Every structure is written in C-alpha cells, then in structure tokens.
Fold:
Amino acid sequence: MKIIILGAGQVGGTLAEHLAHEDNDITVVDTDLVRLRDLHNRLDIRTIQGQGSHPLVLRQAGGEDADMLIAVTNSDEVNMVACQVAHTFFHTPTKIARVRSAAYLTRKGLFSHDAIPVDVLISPEQVVTNHIRRLIEYPGALQVLDFAGGLAQLVAVKAYYGGPLVGQELGFLRRHMPNVDTRVAAIYRRNRPIIPRGETVIEADDEVFFIAARKDIRTVMAELRKIDRRLRRIIIAGGGHIGERLAETLEHSHQVKIIEHDLQRCTQLSEKLDRTVVLHGSATNKRLLLEENIEECDIFCALTNDDEVNIMSSMLAKRLGAKKVMTLINNAAYVDLVQGGEIDIAISPQQATIGGLLTHVRRGDIVNVHSLRRGAAEAIEAIAHGDARSSKVIGRTIEEIELPEGATIGAVVRGKEVLIAHHDLKVETDDHVILFVIDKRRIREVERLFQVGLSFF
Structure:
C-alpha cells in the first residue's frame, strides 16, 4: 500500500515505524529537516521537506497514485486542507486527519465530501480520555480494550502475590470459575511474552491479558488481583483539552478537582464545567496538594503537556498519600522507566492513537486494532467473510485454523453473544474474531487469513 504521512512528530513517526516493517511504500512529509533525517536514518522510507497541504509538495510525495493520506501534523487546519487538496487534485481513496479542536469536531456535516472530504477523523484527546475513563471504571486494570461495540473486552492486570490463581495452572481457571467463561490471551513475565497453555502457571507480578464478555470482567479480575474499591475522589493536574474532557465525563459521578496554572484557563474551565472544582496553582506545589487533602484522593491524573511536570507531580502526589496515580507521558522512552514504581500507570497518547490509525491501514476485513506493549504486540478484531470454500477460517474449528506462531484467538462474537475460543469452537460467516498477536512481523499472515478468496465472487 502506498501511504503518505504528513507530520514527523510523535504520532507520525511512530506510525511510520509500524508501517515501514510491513511492506508498505511510506513517504513522510514535514517542515522539520532534523526529524525527517532521523526517520530516514532509522527506517526504509522516503522523506520530503515541505508544507504538507501544498499541492506541489503532495505531488512530489507521490499524491497522484497514493492509496492513503494520513495527516497528523500539529495543525488541524493543515491536516484539513491537505485532505481537501488530496481529494480535489489526486482523488486519493482514503484520507485520514487528526483534528483536535472541539470547535471543528462538533460541527455537524463539516467533514463530508460536500464540505471537507475527510474519510476518518482521529481525535487524540478523545481517544486518551476514553482510555483513562475505562481505567477508572475498572480499578486495578493496566489496560482495557473494547471489541465488537463493547460486548467483549480485553483487560491487562498484574497478578498479585497471594491471589487465588497465582501458582495455579491456567487449566485450573475453568474449574475454579465454572459459571464464567474467559481465556488468557497472553502473559508477559519480566517483559517477555509467554503463549499461554493449559499447563502454564501464573506467577506473581505477571502481566496477564485476558478476554471475556463485558459482564464477566470484574469477576475474572477479582481472581487475579485485589479489586480496588470504587474510585470517587479524583484530582486532575492540567486543564487542557484532555483534562477538561475527562472532568466533563466524570464530574456527575465522581468528586473532581482540576489544578491549572493558567488563570485565564481556570476562568474558562469554571464557566464550562458544572460540578468540577477548579484550582489555580501548580500541581508540583506540595502545600497546595496538602490543602486539597491529597491523602484522601483515590486517583491523581497528571495530564499537562509537560512530561517532567507530570512525572514530578505524580511522584509527589503518591508520596503524599494519593492511592493511585496515572501519568500522561509523550516521550515514549520515559514510559517503561516510570511505570510500575511510584507511578501506577503511564499513558502514551501516541500509542493510544496509533490503534485507531492502524485499523484503517490493515488489509483483509480488520475492523479494530489496538497497539499493546508500546507497539510490540497487537489485539485485532476481524470479521470472517465468505464461505467455507473461499475463507481460511469459516467452517473450521479454532484448533484447525492455521494461525502464525505468536498469534492466538481469544474470542468470537456472534451477533450479541460472546463465545470464548475453545479448541472445538467453529467459526461461522460474519463472526467477529478477536486475536492477540505478540509478534508484529506476523501481522500480514493474520490479515491474509481473513481475506476472501476469488472463488467467493
């Protein structure tokens, strides 16, 4: 596939890295020569210096025969105009744009072929907000991913010492919970993946990815770790787009406070939000945190646009008594360094955003992609189309499907029913199949499994 990526920042660069290893023809456009040189030295891609919304620059990047344009520069306006130019001059089949401003996103009919022709809108702030909200909904989870419209969920938890299943073989899970069907899709032990089998033993501190119907998630979590009490008191450091959206989402069900250093922004937030308490000050101010009873805070979310402020304020909040801290970190190199110590969960906005972009790049009938473990693994939702003659999966049981090494099927969603993938489950037409792939080099093989053969047409 021939793809043009506009913007060589965190999201554009990470996306280029994902796609360059998957037999795609990638061209990255940016005005920053240093960023482009760095990408070109690391990856087998073309780079063009210039303004991505200019017709001549897009033509130079290969716009005349590009299959897809992904506009993820820091400017909403550049992204939108680039999609318009690609549509008008090059008839680019698929145009994806990152748009942050709610002023654009809330305008009905703005993004259509009769107005601004954007096929797929990506809003990183909304993606991250949804991600944090799910983590608050399931205290103790490291990651919560929705599939098939939320009917099934994949959840990552850390197994704790003394938990009912720690020290037990996975085969014991089904006997221990006869009324709940679930499947462990993968285990990470000391950052190394383990393909789970019936005789695999869960150890303390294992990162366990399991899949189940949404209604059964809490029951399974209780077997792997202590279930934290419901989080009610929340302090948000940073009143930017993400902080504001999160407060707006939570303020009617939780006690929410926002700490924002900019006085004018504080005034705007106090006018927009109904029940949230807006505080003017610095989240790294020990005295302010103590005055706001940080020791009674269930969760502290550091969501400023400064990684160092987020890390320092989170560490300070935890030492002063906050039960749990979540920290937004843009620099991917910091994420693994800080998570699991005083910082409970480090959130990477670019990794949260990448999944939505990959969904539209994948071949075959892939309808949902989540990037996991900082891009090392993926969870994929694919629809089984065709019939037994034209499909490599339809009419076959789970054990008969020739999965590439490192790939496992966790569940099948049929209509409104979630079916956990036991060896004798047979895949039918229009089933949503949820897979976990620990080796990204095998993604193409997974995609080919769900491509319909010509005999179907």
Remarks:
- The domain at 2-122 is CATH 3.40.50.720 (Rossmann fold).
